[in-house]
């Protein structure tokens, strides 16, 4: 079966599924395993390869979102997995283990690709900020539909602390905060981000987005704030779609009879026979 596979790797779990890239939905069930602890490259790559294999005999590219900035397939920073990831050629490691072409990108970028194509950001122009609220805070920015990759706005400093240590969904659980108690903390973070980039729309994703009615109405930040439509499946869908987009961009254009160049006619010198 030909199918796109998307993988979303987080600090607590690795999720994967086969994706219909035309409709932005999973084909079949999502599969999940806990992220190995410690989350070293060898352990995470092995667990991911097993998870992909469990999805059956599929073909096509594999897209993988990881919680860190990715430049030319290499991890430049890692906050929510083992720091031994820094400097690792993630695309090569995953590709060798899976045995298929692999695209690796920041997990928040993956989720944002899905939301902008199929979800709450579809058709929205201007500056759109997508935040994934989970163990940490992932951030992605689109300007007139174009992704600005590898933002790490979850790590700005607020009151002397990394913002995600105060305002993430994981922080809410660690501190035992109700949604009513957490909303002002999240609001403070969103207001600080607003002062930096002035977005036209903020989309909140991650697992906590399925309970958005508990906290989004309590927010007072300037730009409109909405919950992600694809919720916790956005990272899987977006990773797969991004892999297909990059695969298509790298593929040589097809040459048909309509596009094949017509040989130039040789000009006959004036006064000579044709």
Largest sheet: 5 strands, mixed
Percentage of residues assigned to helices: 25-40%
Task: Figure out the total of helices.
Answer: 7
Give me the side-by-side strand order of the main sheet.
3-2-1-4-7
How far is the first residue's CA from the last residue's CA?
A: 58 Å
Secondary structure category: alpha/beta
* N-to-C SSE string, H for helix and E for strand: EEEHEEEHEHEEEEEHHHEEH
Radius of gyration: 22 Å
* Low-pLDDT ranges: 261-274
Features of this protein?
274 residues, five-stranded mixed β-sheet, disordered C terminus, globular, alpha/beta
Description:
With 274 residues, the protein is an alpha/beta fold. Helix content is 30%, strand content 24%. It is built from seven helices and 14 strands. The strands form four sheets. A five-stranded mixed beta sheet has the order 3-2-1-4-7, with helices on both faces. A five-stranded mixed beta sheet has the order 10-9-8-13-14. The chain has a two-stranded antiparallel sheet with strand order 5-6. A hairpin with a 2-residue loop joins β9 (137-143) and β10. α1 packs across α2 (90-98) and α3 packs across α7 (234-250). The longest helix is centred in the last third of the chain and has 19 residues, at 179-197. The termini are far apart.
């Amino acid at each position: 079966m030909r199918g796109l596979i998307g993988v979303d790797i987080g600090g607590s779990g690795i999720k994967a599924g086969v994706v219909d890239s035309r409709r932005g939905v999973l084909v079949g069930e999502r599969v999940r395993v806990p992220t190995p602890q410690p989350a070293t490259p060898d352990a995470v790559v092995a667990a991911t390869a097993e998870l992909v294999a469990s999805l059956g005999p599929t073909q096509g590219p594999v897209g993988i979102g990881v919680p860190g900035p990715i430049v030319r397939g290499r991890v430049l920073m890692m906050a929510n997995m083992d720091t031994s990831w820094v400097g690792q050629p993630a695309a090569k490691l995953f590709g060798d283990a899976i045995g298929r072409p692999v695209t690796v990108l920041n997990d928040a970028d993956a989720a944002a690709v899905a939301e902008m194509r199929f979800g709450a950001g579809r058709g929205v122009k201007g500056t759109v900020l997508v935040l994934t609220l989970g163990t940490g805070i992932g951030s992605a920015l689109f300007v007139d539909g174009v992704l600005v990759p590898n933002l790490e706005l979850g790590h700005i400093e607020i009151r002397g602390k990394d913002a995600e240590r105060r305002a993430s969904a994981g922080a809410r659980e660690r501190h035992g905060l109700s949604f009513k108690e957490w909303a002002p903390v999240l609001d403070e973070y969103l207001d600080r981000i607003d002062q930096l980039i002035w977005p036209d729309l903020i989309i909140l994703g991650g697992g906590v987005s399925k309970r958005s009615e508990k906290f989004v109405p309590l927010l007072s930040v300037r730009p409109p704030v909405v919950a992600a439509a694809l919720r916790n499946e956005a990272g899987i869908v977006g990773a797969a779609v991004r892999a297909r987009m990059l695969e298509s961009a790298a593929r040589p254009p097809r040459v048909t009879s309509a596009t094949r160049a017509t040989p130039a006619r040789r000009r006959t010198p004036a006064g000579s026979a044709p």
